[in-house]
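Translate sequence into structure tokens.
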Amino acid sequence: MSNESSKDLVVKPAPNITGQMSKNRIMQYTVIALLIITAISAILWWPVTTPTKAQIASFKLSNIWQMSQGAIVVINALIAVGVAVGADALIHALKSSIKLNTWSAAVFGLILTLSYTLGVPSLGSAASGPMPLNFLTAPYTFAYIAVMSLVGLVIFKKLVGLTGRKFVNPAAAAQFIVLLPFISTILLVKDHAASITAGGLGVPSLAGPLGLGTGPDFSPIAHNGAASFGTYLISCFSNPNLKAPATTNTNLLSLMVLAKYHAWTGGASALAVILVAIGFYVIARKYIKWKVPLAYFASIVVLSLIMSAAYGDSGVQVRLMFELFIGSSIFMALFMATDPATTPLTGTGQIIFGVGLAILTVLIQASMNFFGGALLALLIMNLTVPLLDRVGIHKPFGRR
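Result follows.
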């Protein structure tokens, strides 16, 4: 005879429903994948030093203590994960009804670390004074990472989570909120677009012709800045300890795919991110929203070709390589845009989400000269998820 009371509601799993994957197991696999990317980025960047205070003038670094960029990656990761996990444990201790999610907090901390920009472009700033980008360098970066981790975990994961489904990606939202005071230098990068004589970097605008060529007068086809866009990418992302490679398609492809030494930590090696993502997707294939990155990258290719034709690029390869393999694009699409809590549930909704994310990313990059474009695009598309969840949903049987 059963010991269960007739008043008890007993729910048991159906015998045909089995599975080895749980939320914690998914989080554990995600932590492993993100740790691999973090380790690769730290190893790649370890020989490179970056100024510990932003005082770049007249294209020279003087009297500045430098620190290994790889070491900064490791410290950032320890701070971000430590603050997130600690805050998660503290909240659970203060209010036991709020579930302890240690693995989820660790994933958040690593995502925050890998979606954070490090380093200062070798071109530096102009002679007009210090760069207003202290959050890129040590020791400032440690404080910013700590604040972002705390804000993201407490507000965007815990507090918003209490209301039901999360509205935005916590790591993206935390960065955007904390760096909002610097919006003029993050999203509206006037110093990048301004000419060198006006105190800027003379970065070619994405809303104009792009190319590789470098003529003696800096004026061949596809130049809309001090030099070609391909020249700028190589000078910005190449290893500052080595002589910058010649501006060729092969060198640019190698740089963008194999190793970049500036910007998003998680995008240091696009190839590493792709390989780790493939392995992770294979292991957790039934639980990953792979339609989002697939729709995103397909749309990026189409949009790049359209913009190349519209702006009269000297070749499609430069714009295409930038849009596909820039660190913010490759890491955001594969590890942030697939967040189960802030992306659509239906397959059709996921495809629309990926396409919309690509369109917004490319448009924001073109209008704002690419800094912050991916994060802002992701946040905007996150807000459309409640509507996209209604697209492609099946009606209950018998409902007209």
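Note: The longest strand covers residues 49-51.
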